Amino acid sequence: IVGDAAFSGPLSEWLTASFGLHKHATEIASTALVVIIITLLTIVFGELVPKRIGQIYPENVARLVAPTMNFISIAARPLVRSLSFMTEATLGLLGLRNKATRGVTEEEIAASL
């Protein structure tokens, strides 16, 4: 939203001045173009590059992010438990009680490693 507000106006004016297109058409085109560019940048720098860094340096990245992930998991635990309780209660009201799920055994973990 902020990126669109910051960039689509000037881009629309440039498109109108450069190509003589109708103002309404350039507003739509500039908004679409800004959204596409911001989406691509977000995917590349927010998803793909960090993933590749993690693949290249897995131990270093794990060591770096583990304390933060641990803190977030502890801080979010009450919310997660509340949501799980509400989900189970809703399923119970619908007569869809969740059967006991089988956990992962040590052998399965060892086999996956």
TrEMBL record:
Domain named CNNM transmembrane: residues: 1-113
Pfam families to which the protein is assigned, alphabetical: CNNM
Cellular component annotations (GO), alphabetically ordered: plasma membrane
Keyword annotations: CBS domain, Membrane, Repeat, Transmembrane, Transmembrane helix
Transmembrane segments: 28-49
PROSITE patterns linked: CNNM (PS51846)
Keyword Transmembrane included in the entry's annotation: yes
Segments forming a coiled coil: none
Organism domain of life: Eukaryota
PANTHER family reported in the protein's UniProt record: HEMOLYSIN-RELATED, UPF0053 PROTEIN SLL0260
Protein name: CNNM transmembrane domain-containing protein
Taxonomic lineage of the native organism: Eukaryota, Sar, Stramenopiles, Bigyra, Opalozoa
